[in-house]
Amino acid sequence: MNDLRQLRHFVALAEHGHFARAAEAVHLSQPALSRSIQALEASLGCVLVDRHSRGISLTAHGRLVLEHARRLLAGSQALSNAVGQLGNLASGELRLGAGPYPAARLVPRALGVFAERHPGVRLQLLIDNWQQLHQRLLDDQIEIFVADSRELEGDARLRIEPLASHPGVLFCNPDHPLLRRQPLRVEDLLDYPLAGTQLPAQVAAELRRMSGREQPLSIECDNFMVLKELVAHSSVLSMAPWDVVAADVAAGRLAVLQLPGERLTAHSAYGIVSRAGHSLSPGAERFRQLLLDPRLDAAMTPSG
């Protein structure tokens, strides 16, 4: 197996695109970094980078090696984490992901409990949509994530454990003109922009049916905190599972629009996603148990 240090040097070079910047990042002199890359190329029997006046570019071999190098380095880190966490979880690192809605409430609560109980474990949280999290998991960049899992069902590479479901609601700012319009019709909503995160196919189809528009979202953003601020200070409408807006509605920062006889958004479908057939590190397993504890969800969700 090639020296992991050489692989780290190569990944740094690929990410920085320049020998001087990469050498600084890995705390080497530029000649030492160049020798490390040359040794890696010699051991693999191929050229990994093309050198030119502006820096470097990866060859076809280089792109292939970069993909595998990242996975090997992630696997090495995962092994180190698992060993370090054995026993009392006094050290190590936990890399996890969350979709926009779980990241707004459920995951921070679980992280808070975890951090209080295991302060020696370093936590890294990546917030993104389910597609990106799916790929990061398969690339071993994260060990576990929580997101809408509807689009991931049927992937034999994954282990998916469903979490509590919450009804979807349409929300607006508390002074929105639509709150004074009764009875409210679906057609009334079309006069205002609709914002949301990247939609699962089931929800997107429902919105297309009800709105009659091929592209029902006027604004797409995977940061839910941005969406809440946008709605709170404009006439833009948005939708979310009830659990992530309940506290804002109770405090009067947001309001829910009611459509008689209509349901604009589906229930949430949060799931804990990990690699099928892969053992979780002690830290990831402890975090998984926290998420599955019904007391966590019950304690944080106002009734609605």
UniProtKB/TrEMBL annotation:
Coiled coil: none annotated. Residues 1-59 form the HTH lysR-type domain. The keyword Protein biosynthesis does not apply. Pfam families: HTH_1, LysR_substrate. One of its GO terms (molecular function) is DNA binding. It comes from the Bacteria. CDD domains: PBP2_LTTR_substrate. Belongs to the LysR transcriptional regulatory family. This is LysR family transcriptional regulator. It comes from Aquipseudomonas alcaligenes (Pseudomonas alcaligenes).
